[in-house]
Design brief:
Blueprint (H helix, E strand, L loop, with lengths): L9 H13 L4 H10 L8 H13 L3 H9 L1
Helix pairs in contact: 1-3, 3-4
Organism: Solanum tuberosum (Potato)
Protein name: Pentatricopeptide repeat-containing protein, mitochondrial
Keywords: Repeat
Length: 70
């Protein structure tokens, strides 16, 4: 998306993150967030919530806590 000249808005980014997290594909949106953070748009609580939900559902509270600090 960015490579083609389109800049994401928060709602679009959050929709992609939610979709991938629901499919338990956490690595792809995590890398996307690292690339976008502070460059193209601001991340909000809707950007982090899907990760925390997936990690807590899987019992991986350490990773959920990491995202709270990130």
């Amino acid at each position: 998306m960015i490579g083609r000249g389109y800049l994401p808005v928060e709602s679009t980014l959050n929709a992609v993150i939610i979709l991938l997290c629901k499919q338990s594909k956490v690595e792809k949106p995590s890398n996307l967030m690292k690339d976008i953070k502070g460059k193209y748009c601001l991340l909000d609580s809707g950007s982090y919530s899907p990760f925390i939900d997936v990690f807590c559902s899987n019992g991986d509270f350490h990773k959920a806590f990491f995202f709270l600090q990130w």
